[in-house]
Structures are given as structure tokens and as C-alpha cells.
Design brief:
By secondary structure, the chain is α/β, with parallel strands linked by helices. It has 11 helices and 9 strands. Helices cover 38% and strands 13% of the residues. It comes from Pedobacter heparinus (strain ATCC 13125 / DSM 2366 / CIP 104194 / JCM 7457 / NBRC 12017 / NCIMB 9290 / NRRL B-14731 / HIM 762-3).
């Protein structure tokens, strides 16, 4: 993931402190009570990393079998694979079967809307590709988690009505989180309030993206009592910093759980994904220890010693 990437020399100067909760968060959680057993889903954005062979995938695992192994370690995936083309029902069925046969952890796929809808059609006259997308992902059955609609950097507030109308046309029971990237959605106070009020009214979630170079996307606005966080780490060299950021998220999520948050989706990214299982492993441990999550630990075959050492020192 290159979104929000900054030069390595600039990372030390980034203020990673999480902002205060937004106004919509207070309204969304007002009057709710803590849930006895909230749901936690922690995963990555892809399963096809050759570097994970001998780390979490058995030696000589073929690429065709990467998903079979991935679902043994994680209970969810932020599915970016369907972004590049309308999902084929037969392929979705194949992925579902792999999850059925190899996972025992309530695994869910969280598919991104295809770019034909979000970036080419820009949500206009998108009924046909949307129907095809929905038809394809329906093959996930009980393995389908929330979908997320990512809009491009140039999709700004002038498209408010387009976004609202599109969301209104989606099936009411379809779980959707929306990721917005144009800076004016967050810098214009009036538009910001209008946006999150609209999402709350339609019972659609707001993705929070925590990337080094776009701190405005860490908007801290909950429009439903669930969160979908896309966390972008900076890799092995900055492991200690990334672990500290995970600790901060753990503390903030704890305050939301105390106020009635029901479900947590937390997806780990890095600009170089080879060490993402290490970051995910740390996240799972912190959530289990401090938030009462019961997510199974990742079963490493071989964990890179230099990162393990950094974590122990931290």
C-alpha cells in the first residue's frame, strides 16, 4: 500500500498521536452499554506473499495454496483482489470452499468494491457493475463480512449527493464501510459533519485509515457501533514505532468498547508486506490481553529474529 507513504527520513517527524474522538462518535455511542462479547477480526490485505513461505506457510507451499494456509492463521482478510475486476462467481466460490475446508475460526472476507464502480464510473450509472459485484460476492455466503467502498483522492465533497444516492440504492442489509481520501471531506468542518451524519443515518460505517502521510484520514468518527481500521505500518526498520501505534489503538478501542462498541475490524498493511504477520501477531496479542479478544495467535514456523528482538526490547 503506497497511500500515505512518506520517505523513511521523514517518519521520525510524524506525529502519530491519535486525535480526540469526533463529534459523531459521541452521538453514535450515546446511550449504548458495553457488549459482553464484542467481535474482533484481525487480518491482512492479501494472502499471496512468497516471503511468508517458511514464516507462516509450510516449506514448498505453492501459490495456489496460499489462501488455504492463510485462513489457518487469520480470521479475516481485507479483500483487495476483487478491486481490479468484477468478481467472478466461480472464483468466489473457489475461495469460499478453501475457507470452509481450512478455517475453523469464523473466517470472513471483506471485499473492496470493484474500481469499475468506484473509480471508473465514480458511482454514476453504476447499477449494472454493482449488480454484478453483489451477485459475485454473494457466493461467499456466511463467509461474507462487510464490504468497503474506497473512493479516490479526487472524489471530493462536490460529489456528496452522488455518494449519498449510491449508498441509498444498495441493499439495506449489506454491511458497508466507506473510505474517503479527498482532504476537503475532513478539512471543511461543515462538510465533515454533514458527511458523517449522512453515513450514520444510512447505517454505513466510516473507514479509518492510519497512514503516516495522511493524518487527516485518522478522523476518529464512528457512524455505527463498529469500526473498520486500515493500519499502515512502516516496516521492519520502524517496528518499535509501529508497535507503539498499535498500543495507542488498543487503548482507544478500549474506551469505545466501554461505551458500547460491538465489533472491530482491524487490517494490517505495510508498504512492504513481507513482515505484516509480525505486526498482526503483535496486534492480536495486545487485543487479547487488553481488550478481551479471543483471536487465535499466529503459528509461526520461523519468525525473523531481528524483529522479535525489537519487540522484546520495546
Amino acid at each position: 500500500m503506497d497511500f500515505g507513504k512518506v520517505a523513511a527520513t521523514a517518519i521520525a517527524g510524524v506525529d502519530f498521536a491519535l486525535p480526540p474522538d469526533g463529534k459523531q462518535t459521541a452521538m453514535t455511542l450515546k446511550g449504548l452499554k458495553p457488549v459482553k462479547s464484542p467481535d474482533f477480526y484481525i487480518g491482512c490485505a492479501k494472502w499471496g506473499r512468497k516471503e511468508w513461505v517458511n514464516m507462516i506457510y509450510p516449506p514448498k507451499t505453492k501459490e495456489a495454496d496460499f489462501l488455504d494456509e492463510y485462513v489457518k492463521h487469520f480470521n479475516s482478510i481485507e479483500l483487495n483482489a476483487v478491486f481490479y475486476s468484477i468478481p467472478n462467481a466461480e472464483l468466489i466460490r473457489k475461495w469460499r470452499i478453501k475457507a470452509e475446508e481450512n478455517s475453523g475460526n469464523g473466517f470472513v472476507f471483506c471485499p473492496k468494491f470493484s474500481r469499475t464502480i468506484s473509480h471508473i464510473k465514480r458511482l454514476k450509472d453504476a447499477e449494472v457493475p454493482t449488480d454484478l459485484y453483489l451477485s459475485g460476492i454473494s457466493e461467499f455466503g456466511k463467509f461474507l463480512g462487510p464490504c468497503f467502498l474506497q473512493l479516490g483522492d479526487n472524489f471530493g465533497p462536490k460529489n456528496f449527493e452522488v455518494l449519498e444516492n449510491y449508498l441509498k440504492q444498495l441493499p439495506k442489509d449489506l454491511e458497508v464501510f466507506v473510505e474517503l481520501r479527498h482532504e476537503e471531506w475532513f478539512s471543511d468542518a461543515e462538510m465533515r459533519a454533514r458527511l458523517f451524519d449522512m453515513l450514520a443515518g444510512l447505517k454505513k460505517g466510516a473507514v479509518i485509515t492510519d497512514a503516516s502521510g495522511r493524518r487527516d484520514c485518522v478522523h476518529m468518527e464512528l457512524t455505527i457501533p463498529e469500526i473498520f481500521i486500515r493500519f499502515v505500518g512502516n516496516g521492519q526498520e520502524f517496528a518499535a514505532s509501529d508497535f507503539a501505534r498499535i498500543d495507542d489503538w488498543t487503548a482507544r478501542i478500549k474506551t469505545w468498547l466501554d461505551k458500547g462498541l460491538k465489533k472491530v475490524y482491524f487490517f494490517l498493511h505495510q508498504h512492504d508486506e513481507k513482515d505484516t504477520p509480525i505486526l498482526a501477531d503483535y496486534t492480536i496479542q495486545q487485543f487479547n490481553q487488553h481488550l478481551g479478544a479471543k483471536v487465535a495467535a499466529i503459528n509461526f514456523i520461523d519468525k525473523p529474529k531481528e524483529i522479535t528482538k525489537q519487540r522484546e526490547l520495546f
